[in-house]
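[Structure tokenization] protein backbone as discrete codes
[Encoding] learned vocabulary of local backbone shapes
[Protein] chain in single-letter code, fold in tokens
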Amino acid sequence: MLNIALFGPPGAGKGTQSELLIEKYKLFYISTGDILRKEIAEKSKLGLEAKSIIASGGLVSDEIIVQIIEKTIKENQESKGFLFDGFPRTYVQAYILSGLMIKLNTSLNCLISLEVDQEDSVTRLLERGKISGRSDDNEEVIRNRLKEYNDKTLPVLQFYKERGIYHAINGANSIEGVSKDINEILQNELSKNLLNIVLFGYPGSGRGSQGMALAEKFGLEYVATGKMLEQEIEKNTDTGKRIQELYDNGQLVPDEIVVQLIEQKIENSKEIKGFIFKGFPRTLVQSYILDGLLKKHGSAISEIIDIEVPTLELISRLDARSKTNRCMPYDNSTAKIVKRLHEHEIKTVPVIEKYNQQHGVKKIDGMGTFEEVFEKLSNEIEKEFKKI
């Protein structure tokens, strides 16, 4: 997903560049004025509140504006990103947008500022006034608008400069020149996009074998916590020795160790298209950890997939596996199999429900041959690649 805030003083050419960006990148345009008028026209609860405030001569509060923006984003999840025009206007709104993006499990990729000298802006707007006949394009009004823009916007620009996502463009160039500069910035942002898939499924659903096959097909890094722990033991590292000691004492490996290994994996994986996470997160706590880890590295979860298989089929599969050389210590009896399934239900199902509330979970029927299920999963991942 590509989320952009486009800034520029009156006359900078934001309208023209917005149209080009929306067309090229299939973004959804969010202008606070436009979406506010839409809510009022639809007579929604928020629209009626805003209309009442405007009728009494007041300014619509940030509280209402942010709710309308959140509603707009949620209603347009199929978009490849959002272009914000006119928001955030203030330092406080910059914090509001940042919090909203976190809540929606995304972030603002960049703020692009079309920078134009004040006298050039005045000249442009006066020329526009001659052509359009707009009464507000007279010099006194123009200079007041430019002063208001500078007074309110400079703190917002500083907010994004400190976060390293501010990009200044010379807005005095030609339309084609400005567009070229913007596209260079956005192509660089798109190159950072990773496809991060979390693969869920009860034990016996085939998520491990499917996850490895998908990672190989799409050039993704396969992250399985169990395998990572085993590798540490095989390498006889200090961490591996600690893990073995915990195993010997019948204890669970704490999140502290698992998180360090996952972060090392993320940091050391270069020239990849993304990750497939299997076996993590298993708990709600781990889900928050993963969200934070990815955000720290400038990324986020792209899609959550849950492979669904009926319980009796799961038991049958695990029981059959227990009689082969692929038998695991934790599924070598019916009692242990049932315990594993129950543990997944009480610990991991709430994680899936949390993600479903945030941005949806794709359910895949895990019945059928390996190839049939693999094809269904591949189709979903191909759709996600198209989005980024």
